[in-house]
Amino acid sequence: MLEFIVTIAIFIALVIPVGNYLYHISTGQRTFADPVMDRIDGVIYKISGVRPDKGMNWWQYAIALLTTNAVMVLIGYLILRIQSISILNPNGIASMEETLSFNTIISFMTNTNLQHYSGESGLSYFSQLLVITFMMFVSAASGYAACIAFIRGLAGKTKECVGNFYMDLVRVTTRILLPFSFVGGLLLVWQGVPQNLGANIVVDTIEGMKQTIATGPVAAVEIIKHLGTNGGGFFGANSTTPMENPTMISNLIELYSMMLLPGACVITFGKMVRDRKAQAALENDVAIKSSLTTKFFGREGRSIFLAMGILFVIGLSVCFWAESQGNPALASVGLTQSMGSMEGKEVRFGIAQSAMFTTTTTSFTTGTVNNMHDTLTPLGGMIPMLHMMLNVVFGGKGVGLMNMIMYAILAVFICGLMIGRTPEYLGKKIEGREMKLAALCIIIHPLLILAFSALAVAVPAGTEGITNPGFHGLSQVLYEYASSAANNGSGFEGLADNSYFLNITTGLVMFFGRYLSIVIQLAIAGSLMRKKFVSETVGTLHTDNVAFAVILVFVVYIFAALTFFPALALGPIAEHLTLWS
Q: Can you tell me the mean pLDDT for 260-269?
């Protein structure tokens, strides 16, 4: 319990200044990095022909994001297909097969980083650096740029302009991702993570055998995979291997790296919306009371952060409890389990930090792992699966905030029906267009997961990958598509996923799960920003307090129960009941 409290307290202490920094970047205010980064940005704009002062409406912003990502996908796919060339390929890695190349490039461009290959044997250093690491930067920056534009739309300071995508992409990369990655990468090297371009090392073991030790630019990949909530490991075993995650300190560095920016987006949202409310209050000569939490998070950001925090703590508690109970099948044959279920876990992390890492990586949709999720107890494995199905528990690259706002719109609509009032959110009326778009955005996610999972268990090409028939086999399939739709990337790796069927279907789920949601959410922001602000009355539902945070949590869980409970009942819940019967 003390580990959890201290870890979360340090996270909150770190996320507040980072959120304030991201807020200054989002609003174009001066930062300490500007004297250096303004020159770098200027060179990038000049070379690419970008006019950063040219504003875009939501549609132009979405088109710019989609076309830029599409060009990167094409170039990255070609590189993966020809990576057998001798450039930065000291280990002689062969070119990647076409369906696997399709899956990999879609995976990394959508910030999913689902890996149907083993990093150290499937990619050359050329691909690791020019495709994988590059995609980790630009996919994360694309997501955060979309989130910033979405917040601008909700703040509604203008009627059309949500910013300039190219400017947001560059500023997020040069002012956040690059400097933070540089510092974090040095910290990981300090803890023993390799960073070189040498060939694999062959050593003699104490048993008289030969062992090949893979090295390479590990630290550079490792830090951006967490900071950008990417998750793709340099090695197949990801952050369970000491080459990626050697110590408890490196484990905490990676943990906070993936928590930092998604949490900062909520603070940025609260501050940008507060600016608009403060301006309206100033115009109307109305005083606004400000508490300490309001100062740090903003009133609206505080309620969203609290709702996300409640969902996170509930999931963490269940996961830790489930793993602490051990496996009754082992207890029945007389094996003691005082440490809980340690199968698939590193002894240097134990149950507590494994549960924390598992819950964090699927709540912040990173996908990195410091233990093997396929070996979790049924209920322990259900939590990361459920959090990817929810996709609102902070989420990654700003997407979690955008998804939670969809539920906030749904919550005010439901509450408005209960009291007979037109629903309002952030001073704007929520009408038919916004509700249809929000409902569509919310429904797409479970549709992708459940429809493709049903297809996978209905056709031989899908069932061939299931290595553990029965309840757990269904859990493997559900986890795979939940991870793909949520752009998470972790997996129940008992599933034999490198097949034509799974490469193509998960690639489609990753693509639609990423871009359909972003376009719809930008459309909602564009619709709301053109509406007039309405004055608060005694009947206005306040969305900036603890009561609304609790309402939001219930709405999220009720929707999850209505959509996912039957599938979960046939998978992890049935496995748990069978195991403990």
A: 95
CA distance 384 to 456: 20
Could you read off the pLDDT of 334-383 as tens digits, one per residue? 665 667 888 899 988 999 999 999 999 999 999 999 999 999 999 999 99
Under 8 Å between Cβ of 95 and 89: no
Q: CA-to-CA distance for 150 and 169, rounded, in angstroms?
A: 14
What's the Cα-to-Cα distance from 59 to each of 113, 150, 207, 362, 471, rounded to whole Å? 27, 12, 63, 30, 44
**Helix axes of 299-324 and 378-390: crossing angle, nearest 10 degrees:** 160
What is the DSSP code (8-state) at residue 545? S
Q: How far apart are CA 210 and CA 212, in angstroms?
A: 7
Candidates 296, 303, 309; CA nearest to 359 is 309
Q: Which residue has the higher pLDDT, 449 or 117?
A: 449
The helix, strand and coil proportions of the chain, stated in percent and rounded to the nearest 5, come to: 65, 5, 30
The rounded distance, in Å, linking the Cα atoms of 123 and 136 is 15
Residue corresponding to tokens 């990423």:
514
| SS3 call for 203 | strand
Tokens read off for 348: 């240097």
Contact yes or no for 153/525 (Cβ under 8 A): yes
> What is the C-alpha separation between 212 and 1, in angstroms, rounded?
40
Bridge partners (DSSP) listed for residue 95: none
Residues 6+ apart with CB under 8 A from 163: 55, 56, 61, 145, 148, 149, 152
CB 175 within 8 A of CB 31: yes
Gap between the Cα atoms of 581 and 576, Å rounded: 8
User: Around 317, how many Cα atoms within 13 Å sit in the side-chain half-sphere?
Assistant: 7
How much is the pTM? 0.92
The token pair at 445 is 């996610």
Tokens of residue 575, six digits: 């496995």
Tell me the C-alpha distance between 297 and 313, whole Å.
19
Report how far residue 279's alpha carbon sits from residue 327's, in angstroms, rounded to the nearest whole number.
58
Strands (E), 123-255: 201-204, 210-213
Per-residue pLDDT for 282 more than 50? Answer: no
Classify 64 as helix, strand or coil. helix
- For the four alpha carbons of 184, 142, 360 and 513, in that order, the dihedral sign comes to negative
Long-range CB contact pairs, 328-332, < 8 A, 24+:
328/579, 328/580, 329/579
Task: Select from 413, 408, 420, 438 the least CA-distant residue to 550.
Answer: 408
Question: Coil, helix or strand for 212?
Answer: strand
Closest C-alpha among 188, 258, 240 to residue 218: 188
In angstroms, the CA 231 to CA 510 distance is 14
Q: How far is CA 469 from CA 379, 382, 557, in A?
A: 18, 17, 29
